[in-house]
Amino acid sequence: MDRLTEMEAFANVVDQGGFTDAAKKMGISKSAVSKHVSSLEARLGARLLNRTTRRVSPTEIGLAYYDRARRVLNDAGEADALVTSMQTAPSGLLRISVATDFGVNHLSPVLSEFLKDFPDITVNMVLNNRFVELISEGFDMAVRIGELEDSSLRARKLTETTKRMIASPSYLQAYGRPMKIDDLNEHKLLHYSNQSSGNVWKMTAPSGEKRQVRSTGWLSVNDGQSLLNAAISGLGIAYLPSYLYAEALAEGLVEDVMPSLPVETFGVYAVYPPGRFTQPKVRAFIDFLVHAFADKGMENW
């Protein structure tokens, strides 16, 4: 008999808790399911199921075999789906989570081109400044910036961005320019409240030493554009990615507070649910973003 069919029959018996429901799931007779499982046990030379008149349950060996068999069956299903997807144009609803600042500045401008290239895909882009649970909240993928937290999600690097401390000329004139990292303790700091590290700035000293600045800050906001506006208004020093402040810096509205510090570089990642098979619509959008951001160039970040 076919090994995969034997595995499938056995796994379904365990999943469904009996031969009758397993037969319904597979669309075959109960006797056929029993024959497949018996053939599997005979081939392996081991009893995989405890059978009573009231219930069916896996033996210790059967439980160990079930775990491996289920993986094999899942891999086989993903292999079939992969072949099917490669012959079919990406389609369907693509639900994306992205931080408001990045979505407005970088995803929104390229979406029209993506939708022209993939007319069978519809996009629902949710802009928010909180960490979303992709699977439980129904997202296909998210774009995240900086260090990725340990998780079971898969990730692909899209590009990089840099980060600097910036402040308005009026602020620096009124409060002075910090000359070293420790001087920041005497300044008014503007914090991004949704940062997982809290009110902590991680940076590198000119010597290469990794430093942390801890401060309650004068203002905390969960939106980067609002922090930039506060810095432009002279309220304090903000630590922001360059894609937010680049234009204001070019126009002289803000200055690099400590140009002697090494530039901090952060990755921009697409994260998506685990599994060897990536949905075609997700793969298409990630591939598109990789090329779109590569064409943009680091100087625009």
From TrEMBL:
What GO annotations for molecular function exist for this entry? DNA-binding transcription factor activity; sequence-specific DNA binding
Superkingdom of source: Bacteria
**UniProt cross-references to InterPro entries, sorted A to Z:** LysR-type_TF_proteobact-type, LysR_HTH_N, LysR_subst-bd, WH-like_DNA-bd_sf, WH_DNA-bd_sf
Keyword field: DNA-binding, Transcription, Transcription regulation
Please name the Gene3D superfamilies in this protein's record: 3.40.190.290, Winged helix-like DNA-binding domain superfamily/Winged helix DNA-binding domain (1.10.10.10)
Q: Name one Pfam family in it.
A: HTH_1
Q: Which residues form the HTH lysR-type domain?
A: 1-59
**GO biological process annotations for this chain's record?**
DNA-templated transcription
Q: Does the keyword Transcription apply?
A: yes
- PANTHER family for this protein: HTH-TYPE TRANSCRIPTIONAL ACTIVATOR TTDR-RELATED (PTHR30537:SF5), HTH-TYPE TRANSCRIPTIONAL REGULATOR (PTHR30537)
So what family is this one in? Answer: Belongs to the LysR transcriptional regulatory family.
Q: Spell out the protein name for this chain.
A: HTH-type transcriptional regulator DmlR
